[in-house]
Design a protein that fits this description.
Elements (H helix, E strand, L loop, with lengths): L11 H27 L5 H29 L11 H27 L5 E3 L3 E3 L6 H6 L7 H39 L3 H5 L5 H7 L3
Antiparallel strand pairs: 1-2
Bound molecules: protoporphyrin IX containing FE (2 copies).
One protoporphyrin IX containing FE binds next to α1, α2, α3 and α5.
Length: 205
């Protein structure tokens, strides 16, 4: 298995970035819903879950920068046979997933007044407490509350509650459909890289 992508499969770096970011999305969701459903405000578990949500989100923001650079300097594995419409859907679906990997954490960061205690290791100042906020926002006479209101709506009500779910669940179901129904190499390209023929031969045993 090579570090870089090949025509047959994603390389180790792309796989590692893909699955780490996927896990961080799961972590961000579990933490925020655990906080909302199972903890009382102003308790330690509430604060811990909150910081885990922020930390998972900030990790996505950092890793997606590497991922975009890595994607730009790597070839893409060749597509499996399919209709033109299926290829277009996959292509735009991947672009939309990149968009949410940037926008979900960015809107979270810009719209949160609290500092991030990154996995309880070190602190990242909230946007409100940076010189950038002073020069880009406060200098135009906007308070943080006025600035964060629309960003919060995008983060929670539009992306968090709807768009991310639809895109990620749609993407995972499409991957499963390829693996289980079409029996092509789509999933293998992002996992073991194994050849589909050996799987098919193994099936009757
Ligand atoms: C992968 C990135 C992220 C995703 C998918 C995500 C998703 C979500 C979701 C689903 C909610 C709950 C919405 C609701 O109330 O129904 C939420 C709330 C919130 N997010 Fe994020 N978020 C991400 C990153 C961030 C980051 C980086 C920050 C800040 C640094 C942040 C700050 C917040 C805050 C303050 C809330 C409100 C928490 C609460 O009311 O319990 N998020 N986010
Ligand atoms: C259980 C969840 C997931 C499964 C089963 C899954 C599966 C896959 C598979 C099989 C591919 C290769 C598709 C191809 O090359 O045609 C892929 C690619 C991709 N996935 Fe996922 N994925 C999951 C979660 C996610 C999440 C949470 C994101 C981001 C929010 C994501 C973003 C992408 C992107 C952008 C690609 C295109 C390849 C790249 O540029 O890295 N995936 N995924």
């Amino acid at each position: 298995m090579s570090l870089r992508n090949t025509a047959d499969e994603y390389g180790t770096v792309a796989k590692w970035l893909h699955w780490t970011i996927a896990l961080l999305f799961v972590g961000a969701y579990c933490a925020v819903y655990y906080r909302q459903l199972f903890t009382e405000p102003k308790t330690t578990p509430n604060a811990i879950a909150f910081q885990i949500h922020l930390s998972c989100g900030m990790s996505v923001l950092a890793l997606v920068v590497l991922r975009i650079v890595w994607r730009l300097i790597n070839e893409q594995p060749r597509s499996e046979p399919g209709t033109r419409l299926a290829h277009l859907a996959a292509h735009w679906g991947h672009i939309a997933l990149y968009a949410i990997m940037v926008l979900a954490p960015l809107t979270g960061y810009l719209g949160t007044g609290a500092n991030v205690n990154f996995f309880f290791l070190f602190e990242i100042p909230s946007f409100k407490n940076t010189a950038l906020f002073e020069s880009l926002v406060a200098s135009r006479g906007l308070t943080f509350e006025e600035f964060e209101k629309p960003i919060d709506i995008v983060h929670k009500a539009i992306l968090g509650e709807w768009v991310v779910w639809i895109l990620v669940v749609g993407h995972a179901l499409a991957a499963l459909y390829h693996h289980v129904v079409l029996k092509d190499r789509t999933m293998l390209k992002m996992t073991t890289g194994g050849s589909r023929q050996s799987l098919d031969r193994a099936a009757p045993l």
